[in-house]
Structures are given as C-alpha cells and as structure tokens.
Amino acid sequence: QAQLVESGGGLVQPGGSLRLSCAASGFALRNYHLSWYRQAPGKERELVAYIRATGGFTTYTEHVKGRFTISRDDPKNTVYLQMNSLKPEDTAVYYCFAEFIQYYWGQGTQVTVSS
Question: How far apart are CA 115 and CA 48, in angstroms?
C-alpha cells in the first residue's frame, strides 16, 4: 500500500532545530514533486516548502525563508525538512505531500516550539 510516513517532530525551545523526514513506501518518489505543509490550531493548512521532481528547484513561504531547507534523497525514497532558528509561531502539525499522476499525504508530525 502506497503511503508517506513523517517522523522527527517534537518539542524544541525557540532558536532550536529539528529535521523532519518523510519516507515513502509502495511507490518511488523520484518522479514526484514534494512539499511540506503545516497546520496550526485554528488555521488553514499552508505550504511551507516545495521541491521539484527534477532540477532541484525549491521554493519557500516567506515565513521560513533562510531558516528551513527542503531536500530529497530519491535512492532512500525520503524527503527532509531541516528547520533552524525555530520560533513559537512555527508550532504546527507538519505534513509531507507528493504529487505526480497521483498524490499522497502523510499523517503529520507535531512540532512544538516553546520554552
């Protein structure tokens, strides 16, 4: 069964770092455009970062530019989100998303930034 599974979330102090991972099973990520979204309580889900299937093009929401980095390791069938200089407003459930001919969502991983 095709699925995405996120990991790496948790509780971190402001200014700290986390690396989220999203591993695919049942299909190969190499043809898929990959994204990370997040949803904070009471807010709509928003796009955080995007990486194209080929060429390495990436884009980020203004709120995370310079602090977050999306990357992919196609042989490992995994996409990552490195998050540095975390702020309380980064607190949310983070989801990975893969799209090509079909699309898949992960189940989400909680990130809490608090002292």
Answer: 23
